Amino acid sequence: MNENTNILKIPELANGKAIPFETFVSMRRTPCEILYSFSSSKNYGDEKGICRITGKESTGLKFDDWVRDTFTDYASLYPGTIISNESLFCFEESSELIAKKVNKDKPQRFRTYSHIVIDNDWYVLTKAQKKEIYELIINNEPDVCVISDSGQRHLLFKHKIGTWQFEDQHIQRDKETLTKIKLLGDELLNNNFSKTEMISGNYIQHRIMKYGIKKWKSVEDKLKEYRGSAIYDLAIWLSQKEGEKDE
Amino acid sequence: MNEKKELTQEDIAMKLLFPLWECIDSSYKEKYKTEVWQHFENNIRVAAYTSKLNYFLSKILKLMPIDLMAKFLKNVNEVMNSGEDKKILKWLRSETTYLVLQVRVLRQEINDSYKLFEEENK
Question: Can you tell me the mean pLDDT for A155-162?
Fold first, then answer.
């Protein structure tokens, strides 16, 4: 057997030198750890082991005791026995901290909101705050950027640092393309087209006739280059009608 | 020697789709007044998922009540015999809205000119 099977080459981390996978896992900071650093280090349990979410040694609860039958994202997990306190924090279904951040009276679910962390500032945003989300990601290099549309699924634990995550999709950061598509989306939205039409490419004819066939064709020809890609879905989601106000 | 001119999207709209539209049974157009253009677009797209233009034609004739009139055959045949099946079918699938809208605009222009003619001759 090849002795180097579990050696990964990460040039950015080790100047081109191969480093063991375990070292790489322990070196990187996970999104759950980043967010947990904003909490008052809440303790959910003292069971020791390797966390199935972060892949690191820690303390928390036994994973098998915690996990529900409805959990299906086993492909995103590391081998291990526990779920750490850091990860449990990001799965909270009634968080006082989130409630405080979004000015609500009742404890809130983590998964309902989009989470963006920039230079030790943690932004918790609703899907109605599209303008704010766009400005945050376009003017900064977020440490964590998890954008939730449905608010129904746990997304944070799957986040890959350095990407924009839109629901389950990890998107390579490309501010220029995002802006280009978003502006075209804004233009069509301002002329009564819907996001469903832009996503599917199936437009309602009378809207095109009202807007002007040539004008529509020139916008649509640019949009269709990106249709089907994750960055396209995000940009169209971020598009807004002029005068449409964030919460 | 005559060089064969490549067909454009506008040619496809005028020479193939316009005749198809014009030959749709008028009672069908009347019955589905509000959505007949959408029906036409959807059926064109569906019929274009094939490898040859003559298959496309027979499919669209089955999908909609179309009885092709002789006056349009020259134009339709020009497209059918162009040898550009692959390119044209791709347009019919991916540029359907644009192509159908070209037909719709032309139809509107004809209607408007009829109206003008009638008003002027009252």
Answer: 92
